[in-house]
Amino acid sequence: MVSPDADTAGLGPVVALSESPGQRVTRQLLEALMFEGVIGGGLARRGASGWQWLSFRVGQLEGRCLGRVRGFGRLRLDLATLILTMGGRRVATDLPTLVDHLPTSRDRRNALLQELLATVANTQRLDAMRQSCRSPDRRQLHGEELDRALHEGHPYHPCYKSRLGLHQDENDLLRYSPETSTGFRLHWLAVPRGHLNRHFSVPEMDFWQAELGHESAYLLRAAFHRAGLDWQHYAPLPAHPWHWQSLLQGRLASLLTHLDIQSLGAMGDRYRPGQSLRSLFNISHSARACLKLPLGIRNTSARRHLEPHSVPSAPVITRWLQSVVDADSRFARAYPLRLLPEYASLAFSAGEPFTPEMHALEGELAAIWRSAIAARLVEGEQAIPLNALALWEPDGLPFIHPWVEHYGLLPWLQATLGTVILPVWHMLAAHGVGLEAHGQNSLLVVRNGWPQALMLRDFHDSVEYARSFLPLTTPEPDFGPRRTLYEQAPDNQFYRMSGPEALRELVMDTLFIYNLSELALVLEEAYGFEERRFWREVRRLLGGYGAHHPELQSRLTQLAWDQPWIRTESLLRQKLQADAASTGHLVPNALLAGASLSPKPTIDHHQERLS
Question: Which InterPro entries does the record cross-reference, listed alphabetically (predicted)?
Answer without folding.
Answer: Aerobactin_biosyn_IucA/IucC_N (IPR007310), IucA/IucC-like_C (IPR022770), LucA/IucC-like (IPR037455)
